[in-house]
Structure formats: C-alpha cells, structure tokens
Structure to design on (340 residues):
C-alpha cells in the first residue's frame, strides 16, 4: 500500500519532474523505482505544476487496470488457495488505490486551455525577435535558438517532445520539409528522460523562410559550438548538450515572468493549441469542407484518420463560432420582438 500511495501521488506530476532518490543500478535509465520516487529540485518552481485532473485520472485508471490484469496473470499460475488470497489482496489494494482518482467534471470547461489570440501571438513574436530590445535573453545564440524553437512550434503545431527529438538528419536538404519520427531509447540521446513522439511518424512542410532560418541556425549559430557538432539533436544548449523538457519550460517561464502582457498560461503546449485554431480559421477562409479539414489536420498532427483530438485543440475557434451563431439567433429574436 505505501508504494501504491506514492505511485498515486507521483501521477499528478509530469515524468520529467520526477527523479529517483537512489542510484539505479540497472541498464535501463528510463526505469524509475516506485518506492524511491521524489520531486526533482528546480529553481523554476512554476515548471513543477501538477498536470490537470483529467490527465491524472486517466493515468490512475490505466495503472489500476494494468495491476488488475497482472494480478490475474500471476494468479493463473497459483494453486486455488493462493490465487484466492491474491484476489482478495488485489481487490482490497485496488479499491484503496482507486480512491485517489480525482473526479473530473465534463462541464468544467471554462478554464480549459486555449491558444493565443492574434494579438497575443503578434506580441509574443515581437518580444522574442532576436533583434528586439524587448528580448529577455542576453546571449546572441540563446536569442536565436529560443526565437526559432517558438517559431517552429507555432508553424508546425508539434509537441515539445517532438521538437526536442528533432535531429539534423530529419531535415530534407532539397525541400522545405522535416520528418517527425518516433524514437524509443535511442543510444544517441544522452538525456536521462528522453523526449518522445506520442503520435504517428509524419512529414511536415515548412514555409521557405522558416526552413531557411532553421538551416542558417544549424550551419552558423549551432556550428560555432564545438561540442554540438557530435550531437544529432538540433536544439542544444550553448554548451552543446541537447535541451531537456525543463529547458523548454524555463524559456516560457522567463517570458511569462518578464512580460506580464503575455498570458500567464503561456507554455509550449499553448503553441499547439494556437496552431490548431489558426488552422481552423484558414480552412474556413479557404472554403475547405469539414471532412477534408478534419483529415488534413489529423495528417498534419500525426493522429489517426478517425481521431477526435481536434476538439481538444480548437476550443477558442469553436467558442467563437458558437457565439456567432448565438448572436444570429438573437438578431432574429430582436426582429420578431420589434415587430410586436
């Protein structure tokens, strides 16, 4: 039960915010012993914020289902008396474990995460411009790198882990395209917690100016860092090490801290929401049908053909269209009222 309690507690945090309190002697650096889980110490306290209740609940349900399955799997190898004792113990333990699952209201959507408005996006790009006096970073390399990674997030809608996993070899040298690939526990990645791609492999086409800026960064700014020349990952620190999840979180934490005019909810994942909302707006302006738009979005985001994930990432756009329809209804009501 103590291990299950610690596991339930850990489920409210992101994996990269957890660390093992004792050295792991195994050869699998991504394995974390449940009994020794603790919170990673960091100066950026804001980056250790809990995941939302829905994510925590989903994790705990999956864990509970797996433990129940595994108990049954082991029980099948035991004699009747031992199997019954195991079933009783499992039932008691999982009942207590499931008490940790938070209640998630399907109605509580007012504070759900949304993308940036056009004005907020413009303000963000104005602040992070490498030549801007508003830019919060002092070193030229860091200014250029942080500007580029945020532009890439806005241009592609990729996840933070996908951005960190990008390698120079993923870029097409003959066309403005890059590949987002799933890589699990690659030997060429020295990070203890390796970034991962949660969606399907896919190819993304970038605007030529964005691709040109990316190659310019690689061939000039990044190349000037000698230790980075042996690292396949594109985004590295000014010492040549691949950036971590915490590094990306720190970029957005610094932006939120220095410029109160930017949304306090500004994170790398808000860039993904922003891309999806701009995608919906452009699709509507181009007259793209809903079916084609849905398939095109799923392809661009690496989702399955029948995925319904778009609803999660287009809340602002959906709310806007809902308001427009509601106001039209009210105009009709006003017309009927005035006649009377």
């Amino acid at each position: 039960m103590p291990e299950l309690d610690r596991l339930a507690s850990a489920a409210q945090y992101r994996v990269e915010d957890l660390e093992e309190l004792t050295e792991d002697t195994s050869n699998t650096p991504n394995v974390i012993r449940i009994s020794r889980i603790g919170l990673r110490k960091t100066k950026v306290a804001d980056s250790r914020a809990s995941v939302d209740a829905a994510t925590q609940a989903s994790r705990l349900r999956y864990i509970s289902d797996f433990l129940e399955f595994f108990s049954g799997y082991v029980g099948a190898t035991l004699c009747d008396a031992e199997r019954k004792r195991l079933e009783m113990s499992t039932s008691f333990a999982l009942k207590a474990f499931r008490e940790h699952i938070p209640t998630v209201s399907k109605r509580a959507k007012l504070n759900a995460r949304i993308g940036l408005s056009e004005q907020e996006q413009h303000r963000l790009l104005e602040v992070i411009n490498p030549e801007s006096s508003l830019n919060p970073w002092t070193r030229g390399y860091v200014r250029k790198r942080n500007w580029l990674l945020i532009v890439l997030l806005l241009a592609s809608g990729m996840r933070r882990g996908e951005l960190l996993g990008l390698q120079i070899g993923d870029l097409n040298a003959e066309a403005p395209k890059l590949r987002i690939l799933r890589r699990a526990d690659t030997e060429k990645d020295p990070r203890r917690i390796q970034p991962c791609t949660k969606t399907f492999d896919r190819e993304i086409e970038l605007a030529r100016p964005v691709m040109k800026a990316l190659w310019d960064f690689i061939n000039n700014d990044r190349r000037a860092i000698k230790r980075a020349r042996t690292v396949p990952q594109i985004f590295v620190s000014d010492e040549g090490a691949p950036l971590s999840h915490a590094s990306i979180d720190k970029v957005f934490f610094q932006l939120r801290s220095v410029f109160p005019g930017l949304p306090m909810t500004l994170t790398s994942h808000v860039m993904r929401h922003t891309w999806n909302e701009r995608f919906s707006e452009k699709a509507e302006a181009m007259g793209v049908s809903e079916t084609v738009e849905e398939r095109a979005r799923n392809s661009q985001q690496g989702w399955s053909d029948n995925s319904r994930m778009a609803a999660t990432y287009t809340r602002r756009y959906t709310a806007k269209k809902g308001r427009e329809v509601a106001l039209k209804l009210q105009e009709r009501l006003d017309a009927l009222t005035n006649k009377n």
Observations:
- Strands lie at 18-20, 37-39, 177-180, 202-205.
- The first strand starts at residue 18 and ends at 20.
